[in-house]
Amino acid sequence: MEKTRVVVIGGGATGVGILRDLAMRGVEVLLLEKRDMVNGTSSRYHGLLHSGARYAVKDQEAARECIEENIILRKIGKSCVEATEGLFIRLPEDDADFERKWVEGCKSSGIEAIPITPQEAWHIEPNLSTKIISAYRVPDAAIDGFRMAWQNIDSAKRYGGRVKTYTEVKRILSKNGKITGVEVEDYFSKKTYEIECEMVVNAAGPWSGMIAGLAGMDVHVQPDKGTLIAFNQRISSRIVNRLHVPSDGDIFVPHGSITILGTTSIAVEDPEDTSSSLAEIEKLLQIGEKTFENLRQYRILRAFAGSRPLYSASGGQGRGASRGFVILDHEEDGLAGFITITGGKVTTYRLMAEKLADLVCQKLQVKTPCRTAEEALVEEVSETEKAKARQYFPAYATNLTATRLGPERFAKVVESLERNPEKRQLVCECENVTLAEVEEVIKEGTCYTVSDVRRKTRMGMGTCQGNFCSLRSMGVLSQCGVTPEAKETLPQIRDFLQARWKGIKPVLWGNALREIEMTRGIYESALNINGGNANE
Amino acid sequence: MSKTDVIVIGSGFAGLMAAAVSVQRGKKVKILTNGSGSFPLNSGLIDIMGYPDSRRACSSPKAGIDILPDTHPYKKIGSEAIAAAMDFFIKLTQEEGYPYQGSLAEQQWVPTALGTMKPSGLVPKSMQGQCCFSEKEILVAGFKELKDYYPEVIIENLKTVLGTEKNYTACVLETELGGGRDLTTVDIARWLETEAGFDNFCRQIRSNLPKDSVVILPPVFGTKPSCDIFERLQRELSCRFVESTGLPPSPTGLRLQKMLHAYLRRHQVEIIENVKVMGSLTEGRRCTGVFVRNAAREQLHEADDFILATGGFYGGGLQMQVFGEVKETIFSVPVKFAATEETWANEELISGSPQLFAKIGIDTDARLRPIGTDGKCHLENVFTAGRNLSGYDFCYEQSGNGVALVSAYQAAMSI
Amino acid sequence: MGMLEENPKAKSDACLACTACITTCPITAATQEFRGPKLIGPAQGRLHFAEDDVEPSIDYCSNCKNCDISCPSGISVSTLNMLQRGAYYRKHRHPLRDNMLAHSERMMKLARKMPLGVFFANLGMEIGSKSGMLKAIGIAGKRTMPKFASQSFLQRFRKLKQTAYPDKVVFFPGCYINDNAPQVGMAFVEVMQRNHYEVIVDEKFVCCGSPLVVTGYLDEAEENARKNTERLRFWREQKYPVITCCTSCSLMLKQEYEELFGQEEMHKNGENIFDSFEFLWSLKEKGRLDTKLKPLAKSYIYHAPCHLRVQGIGLPALELMALIPKLSVENADAGCCGISGNYGLKEDKYEISMKVGEDLFKRIEGSSSEAVLSDCGTCRMQIEHGTTKKAFHPMELLAAAYR
User: Fold this and answer.
1) Pairing of strands A134-138, A114-116
2) Fewer CB atoms near the end CB (10 Å): N or C, chain C?
3) Count of CB atoms situated within 10 Å of the CB of A134
4) CB A290 within 8 Å of CB A90
5) What is the pLDDT of residue C19?
6) Is the pLDDT confidence value at B262 over 60?
7) Cα(B223)–Cα(B219) distance, rounded to whole angstroms?
8) Going by C-beta distance under 8 Å and a sequence separation of 6 or more, which residues neighbour residue C385?
9) Half-sphere exposure in the Cβ direction for A38 (13 Å, CA)
10) pLDDT score at A476
11) d(CA A510, CA A231)
């Protein structure tokens, strides 16, 4: 029977943060995630590492928390944070009085907000609206949710932490008011088995209410869905916020080669609901084009949505309910060893994890202090390493690959390229992903599907949305994959295209529609993915 | 530019066929075009009808066409014209030395790069895959440097269609082309057009070849519309080769394009490249000319008749910038949008039923002239052909080039 | 100015990665070294932010425009490549040969100022070629370098007495016609005079910039563009059409200025700029063209320059030649000749250039035509180098038919 000390449920930012913190403190810990990492909220938001300025008026404590964590994450997460800096811009329809309060709020929260003239703003971001009245520079940054989680896990693994993806908790087991373990189901084999443990941490984000329910606990978490749009280009090189009362669609974040605009806020029943309506998309565009007047000329790659976990003791909704986090020690409710942590935002994940780990360690009588703010998630790849690597990589690929993979994987990829120049082949031409990289991540054994490969390497996330790289990845996965799923090639490629479709369907007009005509022309028509008569 | 008899707008398969048929009727033809059409992506096969109403292939193209609803272009055009169009095309390919074979009476099966078999109507010799069903030895050949083709994957999937009683082997060939870029099938096709490449290929295949086998490989027998490479190989190696379809860029699509261009050039068809047709000039119920925009200015091209073969969304013949408004921008033909947010697209991309957005297009009368919202034809000398027609989902049905061919034929004959 | 982000015309956002440009790129077909227009243009364009890097095969693009012609999404892929090249050379030194090839106008202006300057320029080229010196600095050794005419077109034009007419056109000769093929310019004047037009030549025009763009001297090209745009505006306001007999010049003036440098003025000027046969054909449509042409019982083969095909005006020279009685002209329709301006003059691109032109050479040799017609000077040079036949500008033929 499998055994560990602490089981963490949920592979989002909170969960991986806890995994790392506990592992670094020497606690035996296993994280369970029902799909691939950051399946939920943590990969479905705009990827903003807040400076805190957004909360400067309404909630200065949150703002202060944000700027402190922002500084820490920029230090420890150099490979998953793009220190792009941010702008707050005020447009004619935004309240001047709010600006005054905002400046004050930033100052008292310790957030550096540097005023610049509209001319300076246009100089650094030529696409900005011609109507800007005032602008400020703030230390916002862009964070890649998936990469952050992956690197937290890498770090945790160095200290003995373990992760099982595609492993869903079905039952929480207890005896005499004390946690004894969990029962889980493997997503692929459908086999169920038990894992023995002393403590269970419920870090399941918008699912945490449901997970708490498995333990017979009543936790009110309202999934609050937000839709975001990804554009095919870097519209700006900095994050751009509207300087007004925080509301929908007022943030643009550059991520690598794309830009994300978000977001909206709608209460939903089920955190699995990741649909986006036309009305939401239109709303985002209407608000967004105030910031970038030519916004509609830019090609929309896809739309996606995720649910925030909004906790309220009595069940509030939307932006009113607290976005701050809460830790519930269910020993007080009669179940010792079960703790729920919910709410919160990605920016403060490390702090949330620290507080939770403090509580867990207290219960386990572990005295080791938290060091997650001191040690980098992963080492950065050195300039000398990169300089050497450049001779083997195609143009413009070295930096991006190095930050994606971290030094150990990167070194292996470089070695592979050196030994075998054929591995330089690009599996994904839109995002410059080499065969060496794809093989490397597959070999680790945690890529069960083509989508898993996509998340780790960015293949399929660019212009053609997988039109070419899906067939190639399917082929490579089938050649080097270590799991039985790897050989189920037609379902793999169908599922991958379906996952891409989910994001394209809500924005199916303009060039997205043209791209889909091409996708169907290739896979349904020329390659007959459904097969002769074999498909019933 | 001088006035001409027929102006064809669009040089995709429908456009080129419309020009070819018009020329056969003795018309002076001018083609106005922007971009390559779908040829670089196109398999070059003339799919007539594969899946009329479900994921079960019909036993023959004719059987499939018979059960189509009246809204389908094939039904509007009629079986006589369908047969005549196919006949015309076959003859043209024979004239050009790159013959296609097939009929309404049976499906031609072609292997694909995914290891499935695909039904088609008219197929060039080198892609005829019927032998895959009957032969016992199947060799699937890939190329080491070609990242778009995985023989072992193909074999695993072929087994479910062709059965497990055959003997399947995979082999990987090398071109030694080297160089700074990744290879595509077009590169290999060009390599096979050289003597050195051809000999090298023969040597490698020969050493891998089981007796009496069928060799399935990517579409690499050249980019020119010729059977030379295929026939030489068949003779020298006495085995049966079958080119499968594959990812773009598609040599077999390019062959089809080159073949039609050569035919049209010989018949003195003028092709004006790199122009975007912006609008039209009408007098009463006749269109007298179309405006093109080139780099510097707008220019008017006049003709007696016009054939609109501008494609669907991909080609730009239909445009939708805002949800709910589909536009045909040259003649401002109204395009019926009878969809909602829910029905516009299916939950699944590769779905059990056709996609509504794929079926949207221009409604026409029996002569393939666009009709207005009142159901009447407003421009008596404008005809339309190809993807921009309403009423069919060519990806679901696998009927793309077929409808293009048949509608192009009908449009040109209706003038 | 001229950077990708600021140029809506060259915007790569609409790219679907369909591979159409790859299939029509003649350089891609000729060498495995070139990574291809799609990758270098729109694909890498999205990734430039990632690091200060350079694509090693960026020098291979010949700016022939075949990718632009085939793109279904309306992207000027070649422009993206040229902008990249310009960006590269802002930070890196040009090889000496690029300097030479890009600045022939400057060189020749100097040479013509000196006594026997042209003679020595030609001699220098010949010696340089035979001695291997040209090859050493990177200019193709196997080629016969084009001879500089003893008198430039401008020099000859200045001495010419034209009949005055109220209808006027402005002629933009371009460097090749001015320095190497002045007879083409003279033929043009003859043809216009016959049609009761007076030809003005504006000496304030400078090189259109095409050789500068393709060698990566983008800022210099922009300087030239500004100067020429100013003059073009002047002539537009005078309502005198500006005409050129060189298809690379007409492409630059009409189209590439705007694509590369994105100014409103350049767009407006385009309306007033014509390829010579485009203009003559428009005269014919208005009934203004003198159609009394002498029969010429000859058979020629016509090669359409790529830079003409991308202009979207069809092949007006071919149409006009059809008016000359007894003349038979077939359309070669065999792709790019391979030289693409000064691209094929480079030693390291020579083989590629000849490989690209193979199909065309074969077609020409295999035809029964006695000579070749083409509206591009460097195309003619390439054809004469790659075949046994002579090449003329169709304007020379038209002038002959008028005599």
Assistant:
1) antiparallel
2) C
3) 18
4) no
5) 93
6) yes
7) 9
8) C143, C144
9) 24
10) 94
11) 13
Task: Answer whether residue B355 shows pLDDT above 60.
Answer: yes
The amino acid at residue C106 is: R
> End-to-end CA distance of chain C, in Å?
48
**Residue C230, C-beta contacts closer than 8 angstroms, at least 6 positions apart:** none
Q: Is the pLDDT of residue B384 over 80?
A: yes
B305/B30 Cα distance (integer angstroms): 11
Residue at B249: amino acid letter: P
Q: Report the C-alpha gap between B318 and B311 in whole angstroms.
A: 7
Q: What are phi and psi of A273, to 5 degrees?
A: -75, 105
pLDDT the model gives residue A535: 38
Q: Does C72 touch chain B (CB under 8 A)?
A: yes
Integer Cα distance of A137 and A135 in angstroms: 7
* Closest CA in chain A for residue C18: A518
Which token pair is A315? 């069940």
Chain A, window 295-314: residues with a beta carbon less than 8 angstroms from a chain B beta carbon: 296
Check residue A323 and give its pLDDT. 60
The tokens for A168 are: 């869903």
Of residues C14, C17, C50, nearest to A467 (C-beta): C17
CB-based contacts of A195: which residues, under 8 Å, 6+ apart? A1, A2, A3, A4, A7, A30, A32, A181, A182, A183, A184
Neighbouring residues of B385: CB distance < 8 A, sequence distance ≥ 6: B14, B15, B17, B18, B307, B308, B309, B368, B404, B407, B408, B410, B411
Q: Is C387 left (phi over 0), alpha (psi -120 to 50) or beta?
A: beta
- d(CA C234, CA B18) in angstroms, rounded, equals 45
CB contact under 8 A, B344 and A422: no
- CA atoms lying within 13 Å on the CB side of residue A108: 13
Give the separation between CA A309 and CA A4, rounded to whole angstroms: 27
Residue-level pLDDT at C147: 83
What residues have CB less than 8 Å from B212, skipping those under 6 apart?
B135, B136, B137, B239
CA angle A483, A485, A490 (to 5 degrees): 145
Q: Residue written as tokens 């790289």?
A: A469
Distance (Å, whole) CA B106 – CA B58: 9
A vs C: CB pairs below 8 A: 71
CA of C57 vs chain A CAs: smallest distance (Å): 10
What CA dihedral angle connects A346, A350, A355 and A356, to 10 degrees?
70
Q: How far apart are CA A235 and CA A202, in angstroms?
A: 38
Structure confidence at residue C8 (pLDDT): 42
Q: With contact defined as beta carbons under 8 Å apart, do A344 and A14 qualify?
A: yes
Side-chain-side CA neighbours of residue A470 (13 Å): 27
Residues of B in contact with C20 (CB under 8 A): 35-36, 39-41, 249
Q: Which element (helix H / strand E) includes A181? A: strand A178-186
Within a 13 Å sphere around the CA of C273, how many CA atoms are in the beta-carbon half? 33
Q: Block means of pLDDT (10 residues each) for chain A, length 536 residues?
A: 95 96 97 92 90 92 92 93 95 95 94 96 94 96 92 96 96 96 95 97 95 94 94 93 94 93 92 91 96 91 92 60 80 95 92 96 96 94 92 91 90 94 92 94 91 91 91 93 85 93 94 94 95 48
Identify all chain C residues contacting B270, using CB atoms and an 8 Å cutoff: 314-315
Give Cβ neighbours of residue C108 (< 8 Å, ≥ 6 apart).
C118, C121, C148, C152, C175, C178, C179
Nearest chain C residue (CA) to A236: C5
- ipTM greater than 0.90, yes or no? yes
The span from the CA of A84 to the CA of A260, in Å, is: 14
What is the least distance, in Å, from the CA of B178 to any CA of chain C?
7
Host H or E run for residue A143: strand A141-143
